[in-house]
Design brief:
The structure holds 2 protein chains of 2 kinds. In chain A, helix 4 crosses helix 5, helix 4 runs parallel beside helix 7 and helix 5 crosses helix 7. In chain A, about 35% of the residues lie in helices and about 25% in strands. Chain A is α/β, with parallel strands linked by helices. Chain A is globular, with a radius of gyration of 17 Å. Chain B has 2 domains: about 210 residues, no CATH class; about 210 residues, no CATH class. Chain B starts with a helix and ends with a helix. The chains are: A alpha/beta, B alpha+beta.
Chain lengths: ~240, ~425
């Protein structure tokens, strides 16, 4: 399956399958998925629990490799580009479990990600940019300079979002990014994703159970029994 | 260099763990340093002991001349040597001691005039057993030394000196055993032989008071010139060198034509315990290094396992694997280096007393060359040298690097998703 438009895809999945090998059995969670993600588009992936959404996200974000098929970024196979390089320069992931560095403050988590990916703000320092991003998603300077373990689950999720936004990559992946957020904050995050896609030309791919989020995305992809279908153009 | 910055943040945030790791490192480095210092001190003391004690080899041969003894003594293996050339001589101008008991069946007057003195030609009186064991003591002046060769000097017994009012610096004359020559001797030392005068009649030259020591050249003048060395004692560094000296003796004296006896009792009594301490110290170093590697390896491995999530997160951002290993290595090194410094400080403060406690029981005792100025083993010198600290630092850092890199590689070969999934 390919997207409906003819603009060159930023990310293409070609015949991607993934099988988990357990001690006694093999479980194929993704079966021959073909899809092309485009720049400037906000995608949501829906599907029941265990349908392979997170696996799909992990493969597309370069956190794992498919057991079959190829994934390419801007026409280049990820295995040739290098998964580390891909994650470092082109893709960022917001994890469902936040996965923050627990010995750092919220601010340090964001600036560290910027240092690792080499993201440089157009104006000001990395610290200033990180503070701006944290403020934008509702964390003031006092909270930004606290150790992340002193923040609530929702606040930690916001730090994880700010960290991904700070990396200034081509594709942003998010796994249930609004799960722990109140409605207003969640809407603010969705608006940020839409802005990233439509104003900055990024490709945003979000795995969610939230219909509210899905209805605001440009394309909704459904994952069932290892197969991906483009359900509707939500807008 | 952001991984160094991260290492600093991690150490700062995990203060209690850092302190615990530092304490363990300090203990391991201190024990390692102690082992090295003890090993070095034992080696130094062993060398010193070998130099001062050595092993005595006694060579006897019919017809062994002083010249042959000198040739063997010139061997690189030999530290000191002493040939003994016994001759008899008569007294001139002084009265030798006489037995208090009457001679059975005669007066003994003829002998009294001709060969009443037992003159012992020696090169180094300090090597004579009565002097080295300290039973015979020098009460005034000094003994005969290699520097006295070709000088007509003598060390006389206290009783002879007392009877003739002789003192150090006086000159006395002895007549050669054939009565043809008179040799003037300058008294350089007076010794006291603890042996009492025999109660029954004894020839004058056998009385302990009539024994005197002179250089070998003087003994040759006093004798007939044809006397040979009764025995020669050679001091070598260790029993292991005796075989080499034996080979040299065979070359000089002829195969199987001489008696060759090795007396290494003093060496065994004094040097072997020091060698055992050195060996023990070497063993300590190995045991501590291995135990330290295991302990630190376990701690760092456990820490790395705890920090899997962190590794997964950093990898998910595309951080290079070598930088992740580098961060952990910097963290461990940042603890190891101060630990080495603390250990070095502790070593320099407490090392000497520890060394004394372990090695001092082996030093300071009189040994076979007692009577000579260097008769005692010097006390152990425990010195914290930069090379030793460098070795400890090298081992400490080596342990920390190995214990960081190996478990780190085990985790980093995985994809970030696998690492993160295992930690969830």
């Amino acid at each position: 399956m390919t997207s409906a438009t003819t603009t060159p895809p930023v990310l293409r999945l070609a015949d991607v399958s993934h099988t988990y090998v357990g001690q006694r059995r093999r479980t194929t969670v993704l079966k021959g998925i073909d899809y092309a993600f485009e720049r400037g588009t906000f995608y949501t992936i829906l599907g029941p629990s265990g349908s392979g959404k997170t696996t799909l996200l992990s493969l597309a974000s370069g956190l794992d490799t498919p057991t079959k098929g190829t994934i390419s970024f801007d026409g280049q196979d990820l295995t040739k580009l290098g998964l580390g390089s891909y994650r470092n320069k082109h893709a960022a992931t917001i994890f469902q479990q936040y996965n923050l560095l627990t010995y750092m403050t919220a601010l340090q988590n964001v600036t560290t990600a910027m240092e690792i990916t080499g993201a440089k703000p157009a104006t000001g320092s990395r610290r200033t940019r990180a503070l701006q991003l944290l403020e934008k998603i509702g964390l003031d300077k006092a909270m930004a300079t606290r150790n992340v373990l002193q923040l609530s689950g929702g606040q930690q999720q916001r730090v994880a979002i700010a960290r991904a936004l700070a990396c200034d990559v081509d594709i942003l992946f998010a796994d249930e990014p609004t799960g722990n957020l109140d409605e207003d904050t969640a809407q603010g995050i969705i608006d940020t994703f839409r802005e990233l896609a439509h104003e900055q030309g990024k490709c945003v791919v979000v795995v969610t159970h939230s219909q509210q989020l899905a209805t605001q995305s440009d394309r909704v992809l459904n994952l069932r029994k290892g197969k991906l279908t483009e359900q509707v153009n939500a807008r | 260099m952001n991984f160094v910055k991260r290492a600093g943040m991690s150490l700062g945030a995990r203060r209690s763990r850092t302190a615990a790791l530092l304490a363990i490192f300090v203990v391991i480095c201190t024990l390692l340093l102690a082992g090295f210092l003890l090993q070095a001190a034992a080696t130094r003391q062993e060398a010193e002991a070998q130099r001062t004690i050595g092993v005595d080899v006694t060579v006897k041969q019919t017809g062994l001349t002083p010249a042959l003894a000198d040739r063997l003594g010139a061997s690189d293996l030999v530290h000191r040597y002493n040939p003994e050339l016994p001759v008899r001589a008569g007294a001139r101008g002084f009265t030798p001691l006489a037995s208090n008991a009457p001679k059975p069946g005669g007066t003994g007057a003829e002998e009294k005039e001709q060969a009443t003195l037992a003159v012992n030609g020696v090169r180094d009186s300090g090597m004579l057993l009565p002097f080295s064991y300290g039973s015979t003591k020098i009460t005034a002046g000094r003994g005969i030394t290699p520097e006295d060769a070709d000088r007509d000097v003598a060390m006389i017994e206290q009783r002879l000196a007392d009877k003739n009012h002789l003192k150090v610096g006086d000159t006395m004359q002895v007549r050669s055993s054939d009565g043809k020559r008179t040799v003037p001797l300058t008294v350089v030392g007076i010794f006291q032989d603890p042996m009492q005068d025999p109660t029954n009649w004894t020839p004058p030259h056998e009385l302990p008071g009539n024994a005197l020591y002179v250089p070998v050249s003087t003994a040759q003048k006093v004798g007939t010139g044809s006397e040979t060395v009764s025995e020669a004692v050679f001091k070598i560094a260790s029993p292991g060198q005796a075989e080499q000296l034996h080979a040299e003796a065979e070359r000089l004296l002829g195969k199987g034509r001489f008696d060759f006896r090795v007396n290494d009792k003093a060496y065994r009594d004094q040097v072997r315990p020091i060698q055992q301490v050195g060996t023990f110290a070497g063993l300590i170093v190995w045991v501590i290094a291995l135990a330290g590697a295991l302990i630190l390896g376990l701690i760092v491995t456990l820490q790395i396992r705890e920090r899997r999530a962190e590794l997964g997160v950093l990898l998910s951002m595309g951080e290079k694997k070598w930088k992740l290993i580098g961060q952990h290595a910097v963290e461990v090194a940042a603890v190891a280096l101060p630990a080495v410094a603390i250990a070095a400080l502790a070593g320099s403060l407490a090392g000497q007393s520890a060394g004394d406690a372990l090695l001092d029981g082996r030093s300071g005792k009189p040994v076979t060359s007692a009577g000579a100025p260097d008769a005692e083993i010097a006390p152990p010198m425990v010195r914290v040298e930069p090379a030793t600290v460098g070795k400890v630092a090298g081992i400490g850092l080596g342990i920390s690097l190995v214990s960081t890199v190996i478990p780190g590689i085990g985790i980093l070969r995985l994809h970030p998703r696998s690492i993160l999934a295992d930690t969830e």
